[in-house]
Specification:
Elements: H1 2-41, H2 46-111
Helix pairs in contact: 1-2
Length: about 110
C-alpha cells in the first residue's frame, strides 16, 4: 500500500512538472509577443501592457514558488513515512531473527 501511494505521488508530480515546464517555455514568449504587438499597434497602450505583463509574470512566479514549497512538503512527508516503515521493518526483522535463533536452539535440544 505504501508503494502504491508513492507511485501515485510520482505520477501526479510528473504531470505537474510537465505543466510547469510548458508554462516556463511559453509564458515568457507570450509576454514578449504581447509587448511587441502593443508596441507596433498602439504605443499609448504599451505602458499599460507592460504593467499587466509584469503582474502576470510576478503572479506566475509566486505560484511556481508556492507549488515548489508544497511539493517539498509532500516529499518530506513521504520520506518520513518511508523512514517510519523502514524502522518498523528493521524492528520486525530483529524480532524474527531472535525467534529463529530460539527455534534453532529448541530443535537442537529436541533431537537429543
Amino acid at each position: 500500500m505504501f508503494l502504491q501511494r508513492g507511485s501515485v505521488l510520482k505520477k501526479k508530480f510528473d504531470k505537474e512538472v510537465k505543466f510547469w515546464k510548458i508554462a516556463a517555455l511559453t509564458l515568457p514568449f507570450f509576454a514578449l509577443i504581447m509587448l511587441l504587438i502593443t508596441e507596433f499597434i498602439d504605443t499609448n497602450r504599451h505602458s499599460e501592457m507592460y504593467c499587466i505583463t509584469l503582474v502576470f509574470l510576478a503572479v506566475s512566479s509566486v505560484s511556481f514558488w508556492a507549488w515548489t514549497v508544497w511539493q517539498m512538503l509532500k516529499v518530506m512527508k513521504y520520506l518520513s513515512v518511508a523512514e517510519e516503515n523502514y524502522n518498523e521493518m528493521k524492528k520486525e526483522l530483529k524480532e524474527t531473527k531472535k525467534l529463529l535463533k530460539t527455534e534453532r536452539e529448541n530443535v537442537r535440544n529436541w533431537k537429543r
